[in-house]
Structures are given as structure tokens and as C-alpha cells.
Fold ATP/GTP-binding protein.
Amino acid sequence: MDSDGTQDARGTHANPVPRPAGPPEVPRVPPQPGQSPGAVVANWLNEKRPEAEPGIWRFGYVRPKAARKAERLSPVTVAGMLIPLVVGIVFWSFWRRGEVPYEFTVLRLFTPDDWWWGGTLATPKELAGRSVPYPGVEALEVYSGLSFALLVYLVIRLGGWAVVARHFVGRKAQPARALIAALGALIALSFVFPDAFPVVGWDPVPVVTPLFSLLVLITDGYGVYGSPSKQMLDTAVVVLVLLPFARLGGWLPLARTWLADRRRAAHGQDPAVVAEQPRARWPELREAGQYQVADLLAGELLAGRMNDVDCARIEHGWTRARRLGRLADFTDTVLRQGAAAFTHPSGARDLAHRAARHDLLTGQVRIGRWAEAERTPLAYGGVGAALGPETLRTSLLVVGPSGAGKTRQVIAPVAESLTLQALTGSCAVVVVCGAGTPLGPDSAYDVVVRVGDPASVHDLDPYAEVGDPDEAAGFLAEALAGDLDTVGAERAVRPLAQLLGPYRAAYGHFPTLPVLRELLEGDPAGLADLRARLTDDRHAAMRRELDARVRQTGTPGDPGPALADRLALLDRPAFDGFFGSGGDTIRPFSLRAVAHHPLRVRIDLPRHGHEEAARLITRLVLAQFARVAQEQEGARDHFVSLVLDDATGTVTPGSLRRIQRLRSQNAGVVLALRSVSDVPEALHGPLYGAVGCRMALSGVTTWDGSRFAEAWGTEWVETKDVAQHTVFADQPMTRLMHSLRKLVTGKAVTTEAVTVRQVERERWSASELAHAVPPGHAVLSLTTVKGEHAPPLLVDLRG
């Protein structure tokens, strides 16, 4: 990213077609009557997006009613709080008035004649004409204080006051709650120190008197008791009484807020709390001191010159600038370009047409609605179902027969969402599909590769612009022999590397596919010419590689002929000019560009008569994608995704190993299959284990359903078995009554026996997936990169 916010593709063969940045269209948010376009986007930006379970459409999501009831203080809860409190007050009043005997109120320290002393700490009384030797001992109420503390603890535990305290402490600090807490603190202090509140006129609770009496006994020998000690003790008691009310009222956060507002006002800044400002005012920019930028963007938004793509793109640019420490460049770019800052290299700021609902702030696309069923948790029932980068990073497998809606209801919305996120700079997407598949118009992509179409502007680089012959051989080996049991990708790497390395050393570039085919077939003239160019001593290692390949040519175990036969599928007249052999007429595109830039790429595969060639190209793209996803793994801040509309013949042991590593590289793959039988049977288990999200559409067979059932496992459920047993009476009168009852009703007298058990049951059985999923529905399970998951649930793709 340059200082002016633009991006280029230097160093790659991407060459995206430049398009001018036109005026933004009307925001794709449903407007309210009488609202301006700017107000529509502002309302969408300010809408609360709560945290939710994986797969829940956060935009407009409201938590279930049961969860909201748990946060309120219901009448039952209030009654449970007050009843123990009232009982405790009544019991303590009886205790204090002597109606409940309390022998241990006064501590017996002297002779039996010295019981029932009177007086207080300030005015000790005399007993039998003599003074009490220890002032204050007659008023020592240690047992009474302990009894009062025990009573308070029981009220708190039985009344659930701890739950209520957590309820209020967890809420947001506000002045009203702080004032209520201050009033409660005054009432509590009036019970502890009634002398300070002459109006109340009630007795003090036994808190200070027992503590000070203990202090008198402990410090009597040192002569330190007196007025200062009592003042210190009173201060400590006041602090202990005020502390819980300060927590409940949020006094400290409120004081910090007021001080921050005074500091902002002193510097002429906006005194409003940043966290409470609407998102349309760009509070994060204001918190960082970027007030001029925030005011400019807020004006652009209200004037209707920004859409949802612009908002998400600038937020992504701000996040990236903070991470890289380029705040000055961010400020300069936004002040010069306004809402058009950090525009996509293509110049596009929106798509010409949207078919799905998107929320670009969370990166979600809505694909349907979670069906309300018995197995559906309360949080999912009836709310929107969505997919986002946090789930697509674990890869998605979609299985459903033709006509079930894989492309129209799943693949198309996901591809559209990824292309929109690419316009915000947070994603790069490669879509591989058959020619004519409705996955968006050409204007929605920066690069469109039409393999086999002479009118195509771009070509596909079979070597992904790599310079290492071993890496290039790995790509081709996976594409050519990944699905062959006779050769295999591991055996195919070595002969390809033995030819690619010497050829690059001799000519400075890799051979075209027709030339590589001739070398694999063992063409004597081609091999001799290649060796003649490696006579220099610096090519001694390459000569040894080439000589080893020549010695293997024609041997019984030589994989060269099999690889040449596979290359012949791409060396056809229909593909003339493609795969790097087109000269200057077609610009080659390297898949490596998506690792450096948020590009939108679509590769149209040949269809009629070239199905095997299309599968070979798909395997090649998947192998290259897994390799380029590793580039700039730590520095890349955008998500990289590959969408395969038809993954038939693509899944190989090597590709599964690569897919498993993608989630840690901020990348993911979307695989669509008509049936699991399109994958070798030995790879069924590894395939379901490699992907984190799985979807079974309506119409799958029981064979396909069994694989999903195994992957989703079992769960413990509670079952009830009801058995009816005939009652046999022993007494004659009882037998007579049973006979009359049977004569009248026609049924014998029985009793029911109910047995409740915990059994292990499949989440979805193969039969249920094949016959119980309605048309237009699917069963979807999701997993995020953090390990959060949604169980397999029924989703209505038409909702």
C-alpha cells in the first residue's frame, strides 16, 4: 500500500484491468420511509452487532427471551431477597428487646455476682459501690456482634444477594445507579452510626461497639486506647461500609469519566465519552486524536457519499495503519481523498448487483435461516444463518446432488461475499467453476481466465511464477498424477524435477507444456539439445540430473510415459496458446498474486468434451493455492480463499494434507461435491477430518449420509420408556372391582412403569439425512479457528 492508499501488482503477472472509481451507489441496506442515503448507512453502521454463536447472523440478532429473562430481577427473585431480610430484622428486634434470651451477650470475666453489667464505653457504671477496673468491659458484646454477623451472612446466602450484586456490578456505570448506591450507603451508615443521624432514632447495629471493646482489651496494657483509636476504628468501619456500595454504583469508573471529560473540555475537544458515541462518528479515530479525519468521514457519510463497502474499507485501513505504525500516511490519504481513500486497485467501490444480504463489518453473508426444530438450541431457532471468515478459515465441504441448490444457494452467496470483502482490502478470492456458471458477472472480478477461449484476456501460469524446480515439479506432479494409483504424486515429482531444473538452467525459464511432454516421452533430439546447452562446468549438477532422467527413460518403472499421457490432455488444439505458450497475445496470470494483493479471480474451466482436463486444471490450482497461501503468512493481513464449484477428482492425499494446514495460514477452501463417491473411498475419513464446516443438502443418499453421521458422532440424550403391566389383585373384593371395571370398559386394569435412561444416539443418522431433510434445506455444522463450534443443525436455505 502506497502513501496515497493505492495498491499495485508489481512483481506479478496479475495485471488487473483498471476501472475508474465512479460515484458510490445507493447503500445496500433497506431504507426506511423518508430516510436519506446517508442516514441509511449511518443507521446500518450504528446498529448493534452482539456476539453470537458460530453461524448466527449478527446484524439485527436479538438474544433469546429466556436469556433476557435471566438478566432481569423477576418478582420471584425480589421476594427471595426480601423474605430472609424481613425474617432476620424481626428476629434481631426480638433478640435486642430480650424476648429471645441471650445469655452470652455479656462476657463473664469476674465473679458470678458480676453478671448483667450496664453502661456504655463512654459512661461505665459502678457495681456495689466500686468502679469497674477495665473501662468498657461491661459493654463488651462480642457474642452479640458475632451473632449479628452470622445473621447477615445467612440473609445474603438465602436471599441470593450475591447474584443481585453481580447483576448490578456487571452493568454499565451511570449517574442514576451511582446516586441510588449513595442513598443506600447513607442508610447503611445510619444503622451503624445512628448518633450521626439524630432524625432516625434507632439503636445501632453491633458493629463498632464490639470492635472497640476488643481494642480496649488488647491495648489496655499499652495505654493507647482513647479518642484517636476510636476515630481510626470509625474511619475503617465507614470505608468497609462504603466499599460495596461504591462497587455497585460504579463510582470509580464514573469519576474517571468525569475527569476525562474535564480534560477534553479544557483542551477544546469533544467531551462526549468515546465508547458511547455512535459508530457513524468514528469514535476509534477520535480516541486516537484523529478528530479532523473523523469529522471529515462523518460529513461524507451523512452527505450520502459513502456506502457500506467504503465504511468497511476505511476501518480496515485504519486497523492496518495502526498495526504497521503508519498513522501519518492514513491521515494524509483520508484528508486528500475522503470517502474514496484506499480504494481497491480496480477502482471499484461496490458490485453492480447483489443477490445476498451482507454485513461487511463482520464479513458475514446470510445463506438462510436456522429452522426451529426439536434439536435446535434456543439461540439458533428462527434466526439467520450466516457464513464468515472465522468459519471459512476452517474450510467448508458442501455435498448435494444436482439441483439441490449448491451453487445458487451456497457457493454463489459465499463467492459474492468474498468479492465484496476483497473491495474492502480484507480478502482475496479465487473462484474455479465451469464456463457459464452463474457466480457473478465479469465486472465483479479483476482477473477472468477462460481456459480454452481464444477471447480470454488472461492465461494461467502453470508454474505460479516460482523459481525453484522442485516446487514447480510438486505442482505439476499433484495435478498430473495425484489421482493415479499406478504412479502417484510422490513418484512423479522426481522425473519432473530432473527435466525442469536443467531446462531452466539452459534457457532461463521453464518449458511450455508441449515441450515438457516431448521431454517426458524421451524425445532424443530434445534431450540431446538440452544437454548440449549444459556443457559449462557451472551446470555440472544439472547435467547429472538430466543424465539420470535419460537413463530412466524406457525402463519398466519409468513414470514419464504416464505423465506425458496426462499432459496430452492439456496439449490439445482447444488449448492452443494457453499455459504459457501464447506469446504476447494473452497475459499470463500467476496465482501467487493473491498472496500479496486483495484480488478477485475467476477461472472458467472447459466443459464439453474436456472434463478430465478440467479436473487436472482444478488440481493444479488447488496445489498452487496451498503453496502461495504460505507466502507472507505472518505479514499478510487479508484472508485468502479458494472456491471450487465442482471438486470432483480434486481431493488427493497430498491436497488433504495441504488443506489441513490452511487454517493456520489465514486461508481456506470451499469444496462442492455432488456425491462423496466422487472422492476415493480411502480418503472419505481424512476429507471430513480436514474440513471444519460440513453441509449436507437435501437429497443426499444414505451412503453419503453415513459419512456425515460418522463425522458428526453421537450425543447423550434422555429417553423415557413407558410399560403397562396388568394388575393382579389378591383380595376377593379387589378382584371383584377389577372384574366389574373390565366388564364396563372392556380393558384390564393396568399400571404404567416409566423408565428414564441416558442413551447415546447419532446426532443425524444416515436415514434422516437421506429422507428427513426437506427440499431447500440442509444440515450444517460449523467450526471456527478458535475451536468454537455449532452442532449439526437444520437450516432453511430459502429463508
